[in-house]
Amino acid sequence: MTEPTRIPKNLQDITPDWLNTHVFPDHRDNPVVDLSHSTIGDDRGFLSQTIVVDAVRPEVSEHLPPSFVVKIRPDNEESRKAEAMLNGFFREVRFYSDVASETGARLAHVYFADADPESAALVMEDLSHFKGGDQVTGLSHKQVCDVIEAIAPIHAAYWDSPKLSEFDWAPDIDHFHLDSFTDAWPDFEEEYGLRLGPDARELGAYLSKHIEKLEDKVAHRPHSVVHGDLRADNILFGTDEAEGDVIILDWQLIMRNLATLDIARLYGGSEPILERAGRHREITDLWHECLVRSGVKDYSQDAAWQDMRLAALHATMIPVKVHALFSKTPAKRAAQLRDAMAQRFFDFALEVDALSAL
Fold first, then answer.
1. With contact defined as beta carbons under 8 Å apart, do 320 and 181 qualify?
2. Lowest-confidence pick of 26-35, 207-216, 240-249, 329-338
3. What confidence score (pLDDT) does residue 45 get?
């Protein structure tokens, strides 16, 4: 019998033989003999397809999961090109192998992770019993606070750390947005300009001409491990105290950069405008308090606020790039998500007077 490929290229490659050979090789005395699967999150993730697999074994074992999640490369051509450009799977594989254990955070357990230029896969703990966030609907203020308390210790663990230099597989400049913002802005403005209003149009036009100034400012601030895509769709909330409060998923855009980029991505993009009104300093102070509690020193509340404003300005690049990459995606929810991102991020930048941070 031919040995199954090590890394599945598509759904058909996820077989009992592959699981027994490459994922659970130490349990061949109780092998997977059959499986069923269902795809989840098709309308939420851009850079992967996610499958829940239920495995059938001769014996039930408390040491072997009856179900698990498999992430493989997306089957949509537009999404595959974006993932390849960003090297997303390789970054996520390296996060779990090189970074995760040092964070002390509750993360999904990983049974298998590998990637090469042609294929990629992660086999992970099935957390489908947790409640997933929804970026279109948005998060409550309390949920955002809970996520900040989960991500801040990760930021603190690598705060301006020499260890960051070891993670050269993670970019330290967010080229995902930087490289084409100026070119992408006119089409975005044509689509959203009237809806966002004159102040947002002025902000975007200024940024399109001075993007390097912003990036230079960000480059000289304290850096840490940054999730890069911290939004409601990538967060799970426990339904009881035994499970814990928050699990953060999808580390495909991990980078070494300004940590408030995560907070602006979360708070500015996932907390609805009326829900967050008047709470900007509160959320920044909470994040700062969590950093200090986790050991960060010589970083003031005022510095955190200035970094938050820089990050709010930086976050306006997200909807512009998403529109450039995925504006042809026909799914209803994808269009709703693009609209929510555009409105929330630009309003957030205006609310905190982000341009003054330059």
1. yes
2. 240-249
3. 60
307: CB partners within 8 A, 6+ apart: 221, 222, 258, 259, 260
Cα separation, 188 vs 63, in Å, equals 51
Q: Which amino acid is at 332?
A: K
Question: CA 54, 4, 31: angle at the middle one, nearest 5?
Answer: 45
Task: Measure the CA angle with vertex 344, ends 341 and 349; round to 5°.
Answer: 115
In the block, residue with structure tokens 């179900």 = 67
121 contacts 71 by C-beta, under 8 angstroms? yes
pLDDT tens per residue, range 178-206: 667 888 999 999 999 999 999 999 999 99
d(CA 136, CA 133): 9
Query: Percent of the chain, pLDDT > 70?
Result: 95
Name 13's bridge partners: none
In the structure encoding, which two tokens stand for residue 294, read together? Answer: 């986790």
CA distance 145 to 315: 19
153 contacts 296 by C-beta, under 8 angstroms: no
Cβ(123)–Cβ(196) below 8 Å: no
Integer Cα distance of 263 and 150 in angstroms: 11
